[in-house]
Amino acid sequence: MSEQQLFKVTIDNITIEVAPGTTILEAARKIGGEVAPPAMCYYSKLKGSGGKCRTCLVEVSKGSEKDPRPMPKLVASCRTTVMDGMEVKNITSERVVDARAGVVELLLINHPLDCPVCDQAGECHLQDLSYEHGNAGTRYEFQRRTFKKHDLGQYIQLHMTRCILCYRCVFTADQLTNKREHGVLDRGDHAQIATFIEKNLDNDFIGNVIDVCPVGALTDKTFRFKNRVWFLKPVNAHCDCPKCSGKVTLWYRGEEVFRVTARKDQWGEVEDWICNECRFDKKKTSDWVIEGPREISRQSVISLNHYVGMQKPKETFEAVMDGRKPRMFMDIHDVSEVNRPDVDLSLIDGPAHSDDFNKTNKKD
Length: 364
Ligand code: SF4
Ligand code: SF4
Ligand code: FES
Prior knowledge:
This protein has helices spanning 24-31, 94-108, 125-133, 168-176, 208-212, 276-281, 316-320, 332-335, and strands at 7-11, 14-18, 57-62, 75-76, 86-89, 156-158, 182-185, 192-195, 218-220, 233-238, 247-253, 256-262, 289-293. It is an alpha+beta fold. The protein folds into four domains: 7-107, Ubiquitin-like (UB roll) (Roll); 141-225, Alpha-Beta Plaits (2-Layer Sandwich), CATH 3.30.70.20; 226-310, no CATH class; 323-363, no CATH class. The strands form four sheets. The protein has a five-stranded mixed beta sheet with strand order 2-1-5-3-4, sandwiched between helices. The protein has a four-stranded antiparallel beta sheet with strand order 12-11-10-13. The structure holds iron/sulfur cluster (2 copies) and FE2/S2 (inorganic) cluster (FES). Residues 39-42, 50-56, 76, 78 line the site of FE2/S2 (inorganic) cluster.
């Protein structure tokens, strides 16, 4: 069998070889770090996702080896496949940096200032995006959009004002559950996530929409307002579940499990989908086999105070002084009279001062 020919693509001056059909975004993720464009709607595990939010825009400065003309407009990297010899600029392009700031401004135009009370705060992709690519102020002077409240049932809370219409939850419900009940209704400024008629979302796997939502539009009612994520300690655990993988992250504060989520990879995507029962009903340590602490990116606020794999700094003094402790370097008795055998500090009334050492405060 002949080996598949690979395409060479250069992104931010780093060249990599990928299979034909790979998108620029996936190629950039192979390089990793800042070269990978942010993605608010693309989700590698969901078919048809991407192409909605425009946060992943990149500049194609050379189309391919055969046709080296640059692409005139910035392109969505999650929807554009690589060509052999293609050259792409992400963070090295001023046009991209400028356009991304514009996209963030647009995403935030109607967004409420809910971060202090929003359950997603601390693990919100929109917060990260705004911090890394956004502008400090807004030029928007009109009243922000509001929506009629939709009740999605006992487990999931919808805050439509925070939704960025990425469609991930719609694809999740469509592809993971066998009874899809919600979608994007209306168009343009009125577009909203809703059930077709006032209905609960009660499929076995519907809880996964909470994990795929990049913002705090869909949150877990069993965890709502109970704690801030950075106070919780994530721990990997599994159980023998007949419905799902049973591989989860438990979020502890003290001995109490505050919430159960699926495990997420470095791109914030769910590794294995989990069922509603594991997510909402198993909130006791005895329900799980604990594996150990979940590794969290050091850049995340959640990693604060969680010292996993900590390496203590080497004691240089001890190493160079053949194991002698630093405090033994200087014998204080040589330079101070404080502990002179003839002065008993316990007999001094009040704090000691230099005169005490000149007095005849001697032991008998
Ligand atoms: S969704 Fe994110 S940006 Fe919006 S209020 Fe919640 S934490 Fe803040
Ligand atoms: S509710 Fe969340 S996942 Fe669904 S479209 Fe809105 S932002 Fe995306
Ligand atoms: S991630 Fe590419 S358009 Fe949203």
